[in-house]
Design goal:
The chain has 2 domains: 71 residues, DNA polymerase, domain 1 (Orthogonal Bundle); 286 residues, Aldolase class I (TIM Barrel), CATH 3.20.20. It contains 12 helices and 14 strands. Bound molecules: S-adenosyl-L-homocysteine (SAH).
Length: 372
């Protein structure tokens, strides 16, 4: 979590963006300015509870403090450049960041629930074979302001609170650890979005050391992108498995929820026809998850250009689910939402100035493939 050391009062002539600061950092910042910490808490409330970005409107701060703040700080929120509503009520926003980078945020209404799916990186470095974000390559981590700013923008735009936030957009949240933890602190803060630990869910492909650290830094719900019941298959689908295989991942998952009998880890499992969707895979999955308080989320594969994967048929998914249910495993099939606007799981691409050279590599491969 950010301490005072990493908050310069003025960064190279640039103003400090207060949207980057969680409660602790905000208190430290105000103390460094020579003000009282509680003013920092008030500002946190102005920004996130009231949506105020203009210091002049923060009437419980002295004129002098407001003037001081205007000189050294600002509240800069991400800018929506495109809003796409889906037929099913889902809304996708494209947010413009610096240097031509764009990320996507998705609002998913469902009955009483208002869920926001937020991105944590511009692109992703992990290269899962069935995910279109991976094809975009990777540019950089998002800042705290850019992560929590997605919540800020959604709440203001829709004039309604979010009931749930899932870190399931572009990027691997645990690869951007500090910023993600601070942003989640703000989501859970009573002075901001007041979301309980059951209503903020971090999804990871399984960065085991970071997952262990997360338990010390943050109390949120955990989803893990499993997608395969054995190492050889998972190595293919989720290449980070070669570094952190299932034998490391599952104990870390159990540890994460240890001590809270009501908690379960959600395991995401994308249903790929002929790849991981057989009865044998279901039975293997049951054995793998034995002893781990788990629920399984089956996700029909969402297609994107240039992929050879196909989704399992609905009957296959249901058959798979029934096998899990019969063993006592809780399993649901995730409804596909926002498909018509490319906002479904694995379809978020934004615009990424790739620095991983993945796109270049792919283009080269496809050029070779067609004999160029
Ligand atoms: N990097 C994190 C956060 C992304 S969450 C993670 O891997 O968990 C997005 C979820 O959608 C993940 O479970 C991901 O594996 C899944 N997904 C990716 N591509 C998909 C696709 N084409 N169809 C369905 N689900 C997909």
């Amino acid at each position: 979590m950010s301490g005072l050391a990493d908050i310069p009062l003025v960064e190279e002539g640039r103003k400090v963006n207060l949207l980057d600061l969680d409660r602790k950092a905000m208190e430290a910042y105000f103390e460094a300015l020579g003000a009282k910490a509680f003013h920092g808490r008030n500002v946190l409330k102005w920004i996130h509870k009231h949506g105020v970005t203009d210091f002049a409107a923060m009437t419980d701060l002295s004129k002098k403090l407001r003037a001081q703040l205007s000189a050294v700080a600002e509240i800069r929120v991400p800018e929506i450049v495109l809003e796409q509503p889906s037929r099913d009520g889902t809304i996708k926003w494209v947010l413009e960041l610096d240097c031509n980078n764009r990320i996507e945020t998705v609002f998913i209404p469902d009955g009483d629930r208002a869920t926001l799916c937020v991105s944590s990186q511009v692109g992703c470095a992990l290269d899962c074979s069935f995910c279109s974000t991976a094809q975009q390559g990777f540019n950089r981590n998002l800042s705290v302001a850019e992560i929590v700013g997605q919540v800020w923008v959604a709440v203001r735009r829709l004039r309604q609170p979010m009931s749930n936030v899932v870190l399931m957009g572009m990027g691997e949240p645990l690869a951007n650890f500090d910023a993600v933890v601070s942003a989640m602190n703000i989501m859970q803060d009573d002075l901001a979005y007041m979301l309980s630990k059951y209503r903020v869910t971090l999804s990871t492909s399984g960065l085991v050391p970071a997952l262990r650290r997360l338990r010390q830094s943050s109390d949120v719900s955990l989803a893990v992108s499993l997608h395969a019941p054995n190492d050889p298959l998972r190595d293919q689908l989720v290449p980070i498995n070669r570094k952190y295989p299932l034998g490391d991942l599952l104990p870390a998952c159990r540890e994460f929820i240890q001590g809270d009998k009501r908690r379960k880890v959600t395991f995401e499992y994308v249903m790929l026809a002929g790849v991981n969707d057989g009865d044998v895979h279901a039975r293997e999955l049951i054995r793998l998850l034995e002893g781990t308080p788990a629920k399984v989320n089956l996700i029909p594969f969402n297609p994107f250009p240039n992929t050879d994967y196909r989704s399992s048929a609905p009957e296959r998914i249901e058959q798979f689910r029934q096998i899990l249910l019969r063993s006592g495993l809780m399993a649901i099939t995730r409804k596909t939402r926002g498909e018509d606007i490319d906002a479904a799981c694995g379809q978020l691409v934004g615009r990424v100035q790739d620095r991983s050279r993945r796109q270049a590599g792919r283009l080269q491969m496809s050029a070779e493939g067609i004999g160029l």
